[in-house]
Amino acid sequence: MNPTVIVVHGGGASNISKDRKERVRQGIVRAATAGYNILKEGGSAVDAVEGAVTVLEDDPEFNAGCGSVLNENGEVEMDASIMNGKDLSAGAVSAVRCVANPIKLARLVMEKTPHCFLTDQGAAKFAAAMGLPAVPGEQLVTERNVKRLEKEKHEKGAQKSDHQKSLGTVGAVAVDCRGNVAYATSTGGIVNKLAGRVGDTPCIGSGGYADNDIGAISTTGHGESILKVNLARLTLFHVEQGKTLEEAADMSLGYMKSKVKGVGGVILVNQAGDWAAKWTSTSMPWAAAKDGRLHSGIDLGETNVTDLP
Ligand SMILES: CC(C)C[C@H](NC(=O)C[C@H](N)C(=O)O)C(=O)O
After folding, report:
1. Which residues of the sequence carry a binding annotation for substrate (predicted)?
2. Catalytic residue check, 169
3. Rounded to an integer, what is the distance from CA 165 to the centroid of its chain?
4. Strand 283-290 to strand 293-299: parallel, antiparallel, or no bridges (unpaired)?
5. What is the whole-number distance in angstroms between the Cα of residue 190 and the centre of ligand 1?
6. How many A from CA of 279 to the centre of ligand 1?
7. Residue 56 C-alpha to ligand 1 middle, in angstroms?
8. 84: exposed, middle or buried (C-beta count within 10 Å: 0-12, 13-18, 19+)?
9. What are the tens digits of pLDDT across the range 252-307?
10. Set 169, 185, 201, 235: catalytic member
11. Has 215 been labeled as part of a binding site?
């Protein structure tokens, strides 16, 4: 039996307030625990990453699903992708408006169509055909995100730090008892984005990648930067070249910073059950479950370890 591991992230961020930090921590732990339980019951890595990301899409603290940031028109447009490292099958959706869980739609694209990627209206039509309930767009708009958009529009042009732009993209990577790896990533993108803007999250090789022979990775950060360097596949390239997961993450994040001044974060696992969580943003909420233990943190140098129930 292979060791089962799941790692989740809740985006890159800075200066999270104290009580929000607690809610973020709880959400991340809840998602990692849900994913780990799926693995423990013999579920696949794909089931586990979809399950963990669904928990985070349903949590308004995170920038995905019902907590998604708003575009310039005050609307939610979400991106998501998922990949199975067993056969490199992949599914992605972009600019979807009216589904509660874009990651479920991405999985359906992967498993029920001959394609990898559906967008906008075609994705919406496919969701309806698959019986995914449509939710009214307004239902995904939270008070906090209305305020955040107003603030962003008001401050436009003024000097502002990256954390204002977006917060709480979510992702998961896992390895199951059969040695298969998978990733899932989901986001509302960046606040005040142009309608129709597509980020890194749904793009295979940028928002994530999974290959049993190398490992699985999910990314967060400035989408345009991540796209330019193909952050996910670049990191796994370093792993293929013999680097450890941590070394590979440091190299690719360092490259993105020096080359295009982009910050972000990554989580990784491989078939051997090694895992890593690394970031160049000020902080990144993350949690990893392995051998009945839960490791978690938000800020640099912070790791809490507890026993899982
Ligand atoms: C400033 C960064 C680190 C915040 C981070 N943003 C994303 O991951 C955005 C997503 N990759 C995109 O571009 O659509 C977050 O949401 O936590």
Report:
1. 197-200, 220-223
2. yes
3. 16
4. antiparallel
5. 6
6. 12
7. 15
8. buried
9. 999 999 999 999 999 999 999 999 999 999 999 999 999 999 999 999 999 999 99
10. 169
11. no
* Residues in contact with ligand 1 (CB, 6 Å cut-off): 11-13, 63, 162, 165-169, 187, 189-190, 199-201, 220-223, 226, 263-264, 281
Among 145, 127, 142, 66, smallest CA distance to 100 is for 66
Q: Which two tokens stand for residue 20?
A: 């929000």
Ligand 1 centroid, distance to 273 Cα (angstroms): 27
* pLDDT reading at 308 higher than 70: yes
Q: Whose CA is nearest to atom 7 of ligand 1?
A: 221
Work out which ligand 1 atom sits closest to the CA atom of 165.
1
Phi, psi of 80, rounded to the nearest 5 degrees: -155, 155
Q: Atom 13 in ligand 1: which residue has the minimum CA distance? A: 223
Query: Hey, what amino acid is at 227?
Result: L
What pTM does this model have? 0.96
Encoded amino acid at 295, one letter? H
The annotation status of 154 as a binding-site residue, yes or no, is no
Q: What is the pLDDT of residues 76-90, one digit of tens each?
A: 999 999 999 999 999
What CATH class has 5-157+164-307? alpha beta
| Token pair recorded at residue 145 | 């995100």
Predicted local confidence at residue 156, as pLDDT: 66
Write the single-letter amino acid at 184: A
Burial class (CB in 10 A: 0-12, 13-18, 19+), 257: middle
Q: What is the pLDDT of residues 8-52, one digit of tens each?
A: 999 987 777 888 899 999 999 999 999 999 999 999 999 999 999
Is 223 annotated as belonging to a binding site? yes
C-beta separation of 81 from 90 below 8 A: yes
- Strands 264-269 vs 275-279: parallel, antiparallel or unpaired: antiparallel
- Nearest-angstrom CA–CA distance, 163 and 281: 9
User: Tell me, what's the pLDDT at 164?
Assistant: 47
According to the annotation, is 5 in a ligand binding site? no
CA–CA separation, 82 and 46 (whole Å): 8
Q: Where are the domains of the chain?
A: 5-157+164-307
